[in-house]
TrEMBL record:
This is Helix-turn-helix domain-containing protein. InterPro entries: AbiEi_2. Pfam families: AbiEi_2 (PF09952).
Length: 338
């Protein structure tokens, strides 16, 4: 994983971070730059791709490729556990890589990787479209980083590796996220780091929860008893939405239940003794943050307010205002947006 960008050329760092950030949602990337790179192929960095609980390690070449001749020096050194990270390749160059067993991921997230059971083939993504997307609204990794920073104040001052674990994101996303926050003058990266406008961070996260984070939560709808208190939950399980609002205010009688869990879904479904039901009132969702992030009232308030404001229920919107007054204390209360 990366600790500091060190002396790595900025353009190469940007290529690597974009490639990792644009991977498909079910794949995470961790990387560490070689502190003493040499002229040999595949010595610029090390990458670990993580999917379905399995880890695949690669020696990495970071290079801009515009002609076939740029790929020739890599042919003799290419192995299943080597990986080229590059600019967006033409179809011809991508096919040349495949024909010569050169694994690659480009800055737009296009990829062809075949290594010990990992078969990754993504094509058709455009780097310009991807860049404009990130400028227009935050991505999933950035939203998870913001969540960790807002839930637990000390997260801001921890090493990047620890922040990545607590936010459940790649180390590259931590670096990229802080660079963006610094450029927008929302966070100072001095020693110590400081949040310059915490209220703006709250509004940014709550506003984009509905369109960026919520659609990626996944999970499954289940049938449920009338009272959420009858459901057996584990110590690490966390209620969101209406139930979290009831826990915090005792003002709302929940109708829809949203439960975040770290347990495998099938195991959790069995312990809940619930059955899948597309119209069910219980939405069981994998927790999107890391296990070491504190479960506190600030976390519950964020999960409650964002979900309440994402609903079409005016009653929920009123309770969101109450939670803000009691827990978040935002001068400008967040509003529902549709």
């Amino acid at each position: 994983m990366i600790h500091e960008l060190g002396s790595l050329v900025n353009k190469e760092a940007t290529l690597l971070m974009l490639a990792m950030d644009n991977l498909p949602p079910h794949i995470q990337g961790e990387f560490i730059f070689d502190q003493k790179p040499d002229d040999q192929p595949y010595t610029d960095a090390e990458i670990t791709l993580i999917t379905h609980g399995k880890r695949y390690q690669f020696d990495v070449e970071i290079k801009r490729i515009h002609r076939k001749e740029s790929l020739i020096p890599l042919l003799d050194s290419a192995r299943p556990d080597t990986l080229l990270v590059c600019n967006r390749l033409s179809s011809f160059l991508a096919d040349f890589c495949s024909s010569n067993a050169i694994n690659f991921i480009d800055e737009a997230g296009n990829a062809r990787v075949n290594c010990n059971g990992l078969n990754l083939w993504v094509e058709g993504r455009n780097s310009q479209v991807s860049s404009s997307k990130h400028q227009g609204k935050p991505g999933l990794g950035f939203m998870k980083l913001l969540f960790a920073l807002l839930v637990q104040d000390e997260v801001l001052h921890l090493p990047f590796r620890t922040i990545a674990d607590m936010a459940n994101i790649s180390l590259g996303m931590v670096s990229k996220g802080f660079q963006y926050l610094s450029s927008e003058k929302l966070v100072s990266l001095g020693n110590p780091r400081r949040i310059l406008d915490k209220e703006a961070l709250y509004h940014l996260w709550i506003e984009h929860y509905r369109t960026v984070l919520r659609p990626k939560l996944g999970g499954i709808k289940l049938n449920a008893p009338h009272d959420w208190r009858l459901l057996p939950v584990a110590p690490d399980d966390v209620w969101g939405g209406e139930v979290a609002a009831d826990e915090l205010t005792h003002y709302l009688q929940p109708y829809d239940f949203l439960l975040y869990t770290f347990e495998p879904l099938q195991k959790k479904i069995a312990s809940l003794k619930a059955k899948p039901d597309q119209t069910g009132r219980l939405w069981l969702v994998p927790a999107f943050w890391g296990k070491d992030l504190s479960i506190n009232n600030n976390l519950r308030a964020l999960l409650a307010v964002a979900e309440l404001l994402a609903s079409n229920d005016s009653r929920n919107h009123e309770v969101a205002k109450i939670i803000n007054e009691q827990y978040l204390h935002l001068k400008t209360p967040p509003e529902a947006r549709f």
